[in-house]
Specification:
This protein has 269 residues and is of the alpha+beta class. It has 7 helices and 11 strands. The protein has an 11-stranded mixed β-sheet, with helices on both faces. The longest helix has 17 residues, at 42-58. Bound molecules: coenzyme A (COA).
């Protein structure tokens, strides 16, 4: 299990004029590892990841997670991760589509409304049912959502809800990214209550979110989706989303260093 504090490690490989610096900090699900590649090659990154894994072992061991953002066809970061015994286990795709989305007469246009603070409990219930399987988006609490809603970008008008007979059936929460080129309108979180799956609501709600974003003057839609989320990917493909980049997660689990394990045992922990 990850201990509090930050574990850092730096490796210099002078023969190649290349270095890699890695840091592991405690996250919700073990250690979150970052590497500063600068001019690093795979050997330097691998060495830095190996060193930070060892440092984590001395800090009590546990699971380490390392994300390679915007994966390239030939990527020194993933090569380095594999050299250090990390294994790829998850691909998150970024998809994009031009706005407005291409219309589809088979999909009914639905009337959504803006989120209000009174919707929090109903939202949590639908979200946690829809994302029960998801490592980050499932099991959300009131505190999680209220803290996101305090972020400067948050706009309740871009958080669209859809009700059937007074019951929340699904939602499409959007987020605007104005400081990037081109500006992007993100489908930040979309979910349909499992009782309403398979009725075309996911499609209609995604379009409602994209319509909202286009109405704000945005010309490019964007979202992140798990590569193996077939129901979502079928919907997004039909709407016109195409793959833009992959973020790949690697993991490795290290045991506590023997001296640490022995000290813990002696202390009865
Ligand atoms: C993704 C999601 C929003 C789609 O909503 P939906 O209302 O079921 O969507 P649709 O009815 O438009 O169906 C979308 C496609 O998924 C298929 N599908 C629906 N439920 C499915 C299931 N449980 N398993 C496999 N496929 C499923 C449908 O058949 C349809 O494909 P098709 O048009 O090629 O036949 C919904 O499944 C959901 O809330 N999932 C959990 C949260 C999530 O994954 N959000 C997206 C994160 S990026």
């Amino acid at each position: 299990m990850a201990r509090a504090g930050i574990v850092g490690a730096m490796t210099a490989i002078e023969a190649h004029g290349s270095y890699g610096a890695a840091q592991a900090s405690p996250g919700a699900n073990g250690w979150v590892v970052t590497v500063e590649p600068a001019t690093a090659d795979a050997a330097a990154i691998g060495a830095a990841l190996e060193a930070v894994s060892e440092a984590a072992a001395w800090a009590g061991g546990g699971r380490l997670e390392f994300w390679v953002e915007a994966l390239q066809a030939s990527d020194v970061r993933s090569d380095g991760a594999e050299r250090a015994g990390f294994v790829a286990y998850r691909d998150l795709w970024q998809l994009r589509c031009p706005l407005p989305a291409k219309p589809d007469e088979r999909i009914p246009r639905i009337q959504t409304r803006a989120y209000t603070p009174d919707d929090l409990d109903a939202f949590l219930e639908v979200n946690n049912r829809a994302f029960a399987w998801h490592p980050e988006q499932g099991g959300r609490t009131r505190d999680d959502i209220e803290s996101i809603q305090r972020e400067p970008w948050y706009d309740p008008d871009g958080f669209r809800l859809y009700e059937v007979d007074g019951r929340l059936a699904g939602f499409c929460w959007t987020k605007e990214h104005r400081a990037v080129d081109p500006p992007l309108g993100e489908i930040y979180v979309i979910g349909v209550d499992p009782d309403f799956h398979g009725r075309g609501l996911g499609d209609a709600l995604t379009r409602a979110g994209l319509d909202w974003l286009h109405g704000q003057g945005l010309e490019h839609g964007m979202l992140y989706v798990e590569s193996d989320n077939d129901a979502a990917n079928r919907t997004y493909d039909r709407i016109g989303f195409r793959h833009h980049q992959t973020n790949r997660a690697f993991e490795r689990t290290v045991a506590a260093a023997p001296a640490v394990a022995a000290a813990r045992q002696e202390a009865g922990r």
